[in-house]
Amino acid sequence: MTDLSLVALPGGLPDKRQVAASFSRAAASYDSVAELQRDVGSQLLQRLPASFLPSTWLDLGCGTGYFTRALAERYVDGQGLALDIAEGMLNHARPLGGAQHFIAGDAERLPLQDSTCELIFSSLAVQWCADFESVLSEAFRVLKPGGIFAFASLCVGTLYELRDSWRQVDGLVHVNRFREFARYEQLCAASGLRTVSLQNQAHVLHYPDVRSLTHELKALGAHNLNPGRPGGLTGRARILGLIEAYEQFRQAQGLPATYQVVYAVLEKPL
Hints:
Blueprint: E1 2-3, E2 8-9, E3 13-14, H1 16-25, H2 27-30, H3 35-46, E4 56-60, H4 66-74, E5 79-84, H5 87-93, E6 101-104, E7 117-123, H6 132-142, E8 143-154, H7 160-169, H8 181-189, E9 194-207, H9 210-220, E10 232-233, H10 236-246, E11 255-267
Parallel strand pairs: 4-5, 4-7, 5-6, 7-8
Antiparallel strand pairs: 1-10, 2-3, 8-11, 9-11
């Protein structure tokens, strides 16, 4: 089992270039293990108003393009844009279609003109953005009046079983840090966008063993992206300690992995 650490920027945040590289490497394996991602994105789609028919939409943090294609099927008369910071993901998504344009870009500095989109859809991407205030500001700028920014993200409590198990082993940072749900509430309220809905919902997956979970996180490109974790190979003794510690969480269905998902639908006032 390998620990893959990222370069730290001032303030203890992961280097965005390393985040992009991690997800680029995972492009080929991502869809094979993306059960949670498909479930969350589908629930986010269901939260959009049924009568809402945007003529121009953006899949922000499109990844392999799974929901780019779902948006294209839902809004057959709309023009679609797909944007991701990871070139590897775009290279995977582009041949599969769904959008008129696939763009390499950063959610904190969108390479789009003002008032160009009626919908910005983002499923499980913005949790990797250190400056979420800028994400909201850019969404406000790029949306047309009456447009919608719908996003799903992760908050504190995600993978707490893995975090607590590692804490018993060595006390180091092995699990990604996420914002408090209350912080999402504060930032959304101050964004200038009207909050249509904002909820926190737990999703629990189950695994036969710890290795199945850690393999999936690596295949998703979502292994630990925070600084402060040990570098290099993880020793056998620590792995055995992790396995023993995680067993205290075992349920009839297997070892649980809890994801605390934030669902938001925000509207730009007319």
